[in-house]
Amino acid sequence: EAGVAQSPRYKIIEKRQSVAFWCNPISGHATLYWYQQILGQGPKLLIQFQNNGVVDDSQLPKDRFSAERLKGVDSTLKIQPAKLEDSAVYLCASSARQENGYTFGSGTRLTVV
Amino acid sequence: GENVEQHPSTLSVQEGDSAVIKCTYSDSASNYFPWYKQELGKRPQLIIDIRSNVGEKKDQRIAVTLNKTAKHFSLHITETQPEDSAVYFCAASTLGGNNDMRFGAGTRLTVKP
Known about the structure:
The complex is a heterodimer of chains A (113) and B (113). Chain A is mainly beta and 113 residues long. Helices cover 0% and strands 49% of the residues of chain A. The model of chain B has no long low-confidence stretch (mean pLDDT 93). Chain B is globular. Chain B is an all-beta fold and 113 residues long.
């Protein structure tokens, strides 16, 4: 079984620039999550999709962050414009609804300078 | 929403000793409690999980206990080895519900040889 694919692995941008991350979940997993993990902290849920619908985006800073999951498969997370405090690892995860746990991707390490 | 607290934030033990990490949760509807191990620069990996209809689960040197009444659960690692050194995260979610998962802040475990 292929894992959760994410790209890019690393990204360095200047503040006020835009950036986008891509995630391809495990085939057949209806639920997809984006987490932000700041160094030294636990992952923080940004947004959860069930197929192509948003289930929870209560912790997504909507003034600068946006996410979509067209066709209920791949997803992109965008930051526009980026701030220094957005420096973090952005983890994508997927799960089948009734399955145990998540499978995480390798993450995208974003550095905003 | 769910709030998960984890203690201690750092833990140092001698090789061969036991390590215990404790978490509390706030949402009584939570019914699934996984533990993840994250090595430096890598994705979180599921190491053990427990559902709310079980009080204890063991897998070789790792065990998890759950007290639903008190809303706390713990990870126990016996006969620790240097390769157990990592950051451990507890999490709580509601399987069959919205399935979003909230993580604790993490415990950095160091096993000294």
